[in-house]
Amino acid sequence: MEAAIKTVVGQFVSSARGKESLNKDSFQKLVQRQLGNIMADTDSSSSVKEMMQGLDENHDGKVGFQEYMSLIGYLANSLSESKAKTPTAAN
Question: Can you tell me whether residue 59 is helix, strand or coil?
Fold first, then answer.
């Protein structure tokens, strides 16, 4: 669990390149490179732009850490729900 948290934080910090927020290009690269296997339409710049606008709660045109964590939380919740609906081999 600790390694996963460090990875989530590290990916944001690395992608932000020392800044407090991800600009449009940094956000798109992060989503495409790190989340492409669990998210649809990450290759579509318009889809990623819409996602960024949805996350940008303070409307500054950037994605801050808390906004990024909203995305991570949503993805984790969606993955948890899909796993809970999948029958396990033990049943």
Answer: coil
Q: Which of 32, 1, 40, 37 is nearest to 15 (CA)?
A: 32
Say what the pTM is.
0.84
What is the rounded distance in angstroms from the CA atom of residue 28 to the CA atom of residue 22? 9
Q: Are strands 21-22 and 63-64 parallel, antiparallel or unpaired?
A: antiparallel
Helix (H) or strand (E) holding 22: strand 21-22
Instruction: State in Å, rounded, how far the first CA of the chain is from the last one.
Output: 26
Residue 77 is given by DSSP the state H
Q: What is the pLDDT of residues 13-29, one digit of tens each?
A: 999 998 999 999 999 99
